[in-house]
From TrEMBL:
Pfam families: MFS_1 (PF07690). GO terms for molecular function: carboxylic acid transmembrane transporter activity. The chain crosses the membrane at residues 21-46, 58-81, 88-106, 112-135, 147-167, 179-197, 234-251, 263-283, 295-312, 318-338, 358-378, 384-406. This is MFS transporter.
């Protein structure tokens, strides 16, 4: 006699539908194109500094002002998305940052580049704040880690695209053309999303169940039991971002200045790092659905710490390449693979977009706004390699601590 399959077993076998895969593809592509532009600055930093006659520390503040804009855009649009839906804010954010990618290439002065990067950051923060909750509310719970890992290939994949563009069309003084090309894909993707994407069903059900207006979600983040969830999410995202910026932001500049790499060599080693990160993100994201978020962070952070000395300090090109593979696999790959689902799992449905947008970008404000400037300042005394290595080691250790101060959430119900 055939026995009925228990509900728990059915749930574990649940697969993504075509609509769910489309949402995963849209949000991932949006993140790739976002990163494509953002990481181009790491390749063309030297020439922008030369053209506008600014120091590394001053140039680092371009990233800082973008991070500040991401905090503002992410928090405000997160509130809008929780009140009026995920779809329109997501579409608007993609077209918005595509437009300001284009305009950035026309910057006649360093001050105007500041302004345009601030406006770009508003759209960048909005996209991630809305796109991640939409994705995590859509995919089956047993696929959230994998979906997060696939989504988080966005930044290393964007870095690979930037590296290919850099080696393909770059020559001295042509940094502006890189912005022009980067502007096209997100605008096209925004139009495609307008046609194909529908509103989150879980958000619609939650809205229809409400009979009165609640407190502003932004305030609810800091009330009662939710307070520690919010604070922890900010702290862990700060750790994520310090790790990321310590690895990625100044790496091409480090290779050109301290190792005297040519343009093709810089492109090759950074593409290698990002390709390793893509693989790590997929593998660790899938693994997190089995062993949980806590152990995924712990193992990948330890791997980052072990590879950090090889990553930059040794004056040996072969070991430098090996270090790039190791750190890419465990850092922007493993550690970052669960950022999307881990942050979203801190918040209930009614404030998820607000909470994700605020805490991710607040963490980015502390981790991403200060780290580029600090590395730029300290590099003049200690060199990029030593400062970047310290950033990786300290942030990885901090993330392990934060992981064990938080509950395991891999089986959390995202419909409430």
């Amino acid at each position: 006699m055939n026995r009925p399959v228990p509900k728990r077993m059915k749930k574990n076998r649940e697969k993504m539908s075509s609509k769910q895969r489309n949402i995963l593809a849209v949000v991932t592509m949006a993140w790739i194109f976002d990163a494509f532009d953002y990481l181009m600055l790491t390749y063309i930093a030297v020439d922008i500094m030369k053209e506008f006659n600014v120091t590394a520390a001053v140039f680092g503040t371009v990233t800082s002002v973008t991070v500040l804009a991401r905090l503002i855009g992410g928090a405000l649009v997160g509130v809008i998305a929780d009140k009026w839906g995920r779809r329109i804010p997501l579409i608007t954010s993609m077209i918005w940052y595509g437009i300001f990618q284009l305009i950035s290439g026309f910057s006649p002065t360093f001050t105007l580049l500041y302004v345009f990067r601030f406006l770009f950051g508003l759209g960048m923060g909005s996209m991630y704040s809305v796109g991640v909750p939409l994705l995590m509310e859509t995919v089956p719970r047993n696929k959230r880690g994998l979906a997060s890992g696939l989504l988080e290939i966005g930044f290393p994949a964007g870095g690979i695209l930037a590296g290919l563009l850099y080696v393909g069309i770059y020559s001295s003084g042509s940094w502006r053309e890189m912005f022009y090309i980067a502007a096209i894909p997100p605008i096209i993707l925004g139009i495609y999303t307008l046609v194909t994407l529908k509103e989150s069903k879980k958000w619609i059900r939650q809205q229809s169940a409400q009979h009165s207006l609640e407190k502003i979600p932004l305030i609810n983040l800091f009330i009662g039991k939710q307070l520690w969830n919010t604070v922890h999410s900010i702290l862990v995202n700060a750790g994520f971002l310090v790790l990321f910026y310590s690895i990625s932001l100044w790496y091409p500049t480090f290779l050109r200045i301290e190792h005297h790499f040519t343009v093709p060599m810089v492109s090759a080693v950074t593409i290698l790092l990002n390709a390793s990160a893509v693989l790590g993100s997929i593998l660790f994201g899938n693994l997190s659905d089995k062993i949980g978020r806590r152990w995924t962070i712990t193992l990948s952070a330890l791997g980052s710490m072990l590879g950090a000395p090889l990553f930059v300090l040794l004056d040996n090109n072969l070991l430098l390449y090996i270090g790039a593979i190791i750190v890419g696999f465990f850092g922007p790959g493993g550690v970052w693979s669960i950022n999307a689902t881990y942050t979203a799992e801190h918040f209930p449905l009614s404030m998820r977009s607000t909470g994700h947008g605020l805490t991710y970008n607040a963490g980015n404000f502390f981790g991403g706004m200060l780290t580029p400037v600090i590395i730029g300042l300290l590099s003049t005394q200690y060199g990029f390699g030593a400062v970047m290595t310290f950033g990786v080691l300290s942030s990885a250790a901090f993330l392990i601590l934060m992981a064990w101060l938080w509950k395991e959430t891999k089986d959390m119900d995202m419909s409430i």
